[in-house]
Amino acid sequence: MIIKEHKSKSGMIVSACDADIIGKKYAERGLLLDLTADFYKGVKMINSEAEKKCKNAYIINAVGKKSVALVRKLGIINEKNIIKIKNIPFVQCLLLQNEV
Fold it and tell me: Which terminus of the chain is more solvent-facing, meaning fewer CB atoms within 10 Å of its CB: N or C?
C-alpha cells in the first residue's frame, strides 16, 4: 500500500491507497475518487509500517480494499462507515483524542 503523510497545524494527515489503483480516477453517482493527485502519491509500505503511521494520524483517508481493511483492523471504522465508488472502498476518519 502507498502511504503519504501530510503535516498540518492540528497534526498528521495520512493518506493510504492500494498500490494497484493509484494514478486512476473513478466516478459514480456524482462522486469522484481522483487518485492521480499528489495527495496520494507517497511511499510503498508494508502493513506494519502503515499501521504505525495511521495510529499517529488525526485524519486518515483510506482508498482500496487493503487500505480500508487496515483501518478496520485498527478498530477505527466499521462497515457502515465505508462508501464505494465503482466498487472501490473509501473512508475518511477524524480521530479525536481526549486530553486529560
Answer: C
**Per-residue pLDDT at 3 exceeds 90:** yes
Condensed to tens digits (0 to 9), the pLDDT of residues 30-43 reads 999 999 989 999 99
Identify the CATH number of the domain in which residue 16 sits: 3.30.1860.10
Single pTM value for the model: 0.89
Helices (H), the chain: 47-55, 65-73
Look at residue 99 and tell me if it is in a domain. no
The answer to whether the beta carbons of residues 69 and 76 sit under 8 Å apart is no
